[in-house]
Amino acid sequence: MTVVTSLHTNPLLTRLAGSTRILVAGAGGGFDIYSGLPLALSLLHQNKEVHLANLSFSALAGLPPDAWAAEDLAVVTPETAPHQNYFPERTLARWLRVHGYPDTVYAFPQTGVRPLRAAYRALIERHDIDAVVLVDGGTDILLRGDEAGLGTPEEDLASVAALAALDGVPDRFVVSVGFGVDAYHGVNHVQVLENIAALERDGAYLGAFSIPRATREGALYLDAVAHAQEHTPDHPSIVNGSIAAAVRGAFGDVRFTDRTRGSELFVNPLMSLDFAFDLPGLAARCLYLDRIEDTHLIRQVHSRIAEFRDSVVPRPPRTFPH
């Protein structure tokens, strides 16, 4: 059902106004949780209790037993695994401590939907969470499965599936930030816009809002991304580097890491927009979510999506009008 709000209010923040304990979680691994940092900080500055989590690409298997709050739910602090070079969750925890924010970041290992849902349930019960915001750095979380290219949807849609069928949490949302950054993964962004239009017709699109650098949250986000780039020099985030460049007003083929050597980026103001959605409404449009429902391993998610792709004729890609 569409909730009618005033033009001067943001539909997502209006929906979150009555929530007191909110989980902001990165959907697709890597530095995705950084993409949710401006929203999480905004909620913290409204005196909400905010917890952070991320589907992790870090080497969680080597963590000691006391680092686990539950099966497939690691508790990452600034002191966790000090000798690991690549550990976005710990890097973020260290930044949070420097700036005086709660400095625990939870981490989920790469699993299938069933264990990921159990880990989410354990975290939600641990903090009596009453709203979850799932954040994707990029737009492949918005693809339903029959597009020309899907990008890298496995972790994103495993996260969506885990939360879509999770009872007991009244409010679940998806936020996509970094429009256009998935182009080098084969995503056709005209089809992304087509999907957003369909979600609007379904009442599941909650509008968009920008991350201005002149805001407190925008400035802190830029600082956090710069900190992460400094402390992860061998594998900086292309997604958040692009978003941060857009927030600073950069445009076009911006160079901020050697990882993009040989490719042409198109940094633009749309990358700094947060597109917000109702998670159950988004999940209902995914054509293969039922196929990954009973998975236990991430490789099963990969294979089920591949099998689905073999069974459909993709919609032809479309170009922006010139």
List the helices and strands and how they pair.
Elements: H1 11-16, E1 21-26, H2 32-35, H3 37-45, E2 49-55, E3 68-70, E4 73-76, H4 88-98, E5 105-108, H5 113-127, E6 131-137, H6 154-164, E7 171-177, H7 189-202, E8 205-210, H8 216-231, H9 238-247, E9 273-278, H10 279-285, H11 289-292, H12 298-311
Parallel strand pairs: 1-2, 1-6, 2-5, 6-7
Antiparallel strand pairs: 3-4, 4-5, 7-9, 8-9
Protein name: DUF1152 domain-containing protein
Pfam family, one: DUF1152
Organism: Streptomyces edwardsiae
Description:
- The chain has 322 residues and is of the alpha/beta class.
- The protein has one domain (17-218, 271-311): 3-Layer(aba) Sandwich (Rossmann fold).
- Helices cover 38% and strands 16% of the residues.
- The protein is built from 12 helices and 9 strands.
- It has helices spanning 11-16, 32-35, 37-45, 88-98, 113-127, 154-164, 189-202, 216-231, 238-247, 279-285, 289-292, 298-311, and strands at residues 21-26, 49-55, 68-70, 73-76, 105-108, 131-137, 171-177, 205-210, 273-278.
- It has a 9-stranded mixed sheet, sandwiched between helices.
- The chain is globular and about 50 Å long.
- The two termini are 36 Å apart.
- The mean pLDDT is 95.
